[in-house]
Amino acid sequence: MRLHRWLAPSCAAALAVGLAACGGSTGGSSGGGGGSTSAASSSLVVETSFVLKTLDPARMFEPTGLMIDHTLYDTLLTYKGSDVTTPVPDLATSYTASADAKTYTFKLRPGVEFANGDPVTAADVVFSLMRTKNVEGNPSFLMADITATAPNATTVVLTSTTPNTAIPAIVTNPALGIVDAKKVQAAGGSDAADAAKTDKAETALNTTSEGSGPYTLTSYSTTTQVVLTANPKYWGPKPRYGKIVIRNVEASVQKLDVLKGESQIAVDLSPTQAQGMSGVQIVNGASPNLFFLLSNDNPKISKITSNPKFQEALRYGINYPSLLQLAGKGAVQAAGIIPTMFLGSLPAGSGASYDLAKAKAALAAAGVGHPTLNLVYPSDIQVNGLSFGDLAARIQQELQQVGINVKLQGQSIQVALNSYRGGQEQLGLWYWGPDFPDPSDYLNFLPGALVGLRAGWAKGSDPSLETMGTKAAGTTDKATRQSLYQQIQRSMNTTSPFMPLIQPAQIVVGANAVKNLQSNALWLVDLTELG
Question: What is the pTM for the complete model shown?
């Protein structure tokens, strides 16, 4: 995620999993803990630390909003369970791609109705996608250079001005959920080119959801709770729960509530908080978030950090097992820039290995002596319960043994982002969360691309790697894509200004009575699949 597309200054402290947000428990509910949640009770309480600004799909791109809108709105394609490597049908039953990866044709599922009874048509899909594009809200970039058209009532065509193999993954995003065009237009909505100025439907969509998903919106607050009710007109399997209440609760209180049976799911516990819990089920696996270290490749910023041998010293000098110990159970070493659950990820063990002797030899070969360098990181946020400050201090300690002196410069997220985005940091400790679950999102790390430039890695720095990136961006064959993205990462693991560090743990805790509880890289928990 382009750090941080969804960040609001007032919620910087609630940026990520494991950090307290704004509220507390609001009382009891049926089920929870080790007890039962019967079909008769038909109610589910989910607690999370809200990062939520709106439920209007065209303007929503926050973690809590993604989880909620996924239950309210169908998308053309979706994912099942925790598997985000292959999109599956949702409103579209099938799709085809042109050989040049510029045109994608989707066939719609017949007979689907919105919760209000209106039929879902191709015109609704086009309106929804073009509204998200033209409102110019946080998720509008998903539709950049893409145009939606409807040649007939059951077909939607997405046309990109450039090859875009990520389109099947992009359309799974709840920000591209399909709304009832007639109802949204009546509420002041628009998909016109000037929608950024003329669209007035956000307030209405924060009151009444206009989707065809398994649930409808009953009540909404960005500070206390959101209540959803099962949609009786849903075309798919009947929702397990008649009502879902999503509460804004601090992580520490979430733990107490799920143990007491006050809630059935806690989304935001850290590995430390989850350790030793009993009488509940714990889903513990690697998060899609990637922590990485950058060593600025621009000699105008630093002749030391741009030295390839110095970068090699960093790569070998980081004690990856030590970082995993700090991150806790469920964290994994990043084998490359692409997270383990995405197409094109490298096998475990493919990443750099800690080798102090090699690190010292590389530093000596760099001819820079024992340098002192500044390491910038955001000091006021956590990701999946892991503090940047703790991680930076551990890196400082490890590199000291190599002969590299690191001065820690923790800054507020708003201040640190300026130097990061401007490519001004000698060393930087950051993370990337996926904009969409497709390896093409990580082409941003290549020379001349968004994150590459933040590390001073200019276009033309590695022509062979850049050629591979261009080829990967225009290849639709799954096996070929996998091979290309793995080649890209192997090259970057040897020569690049980036050192992929770890994927922290993503933990979801649930009552034993909740069935099919899984975490998802895009919407945290799929509340619609629970049994």
Answer: 0.89
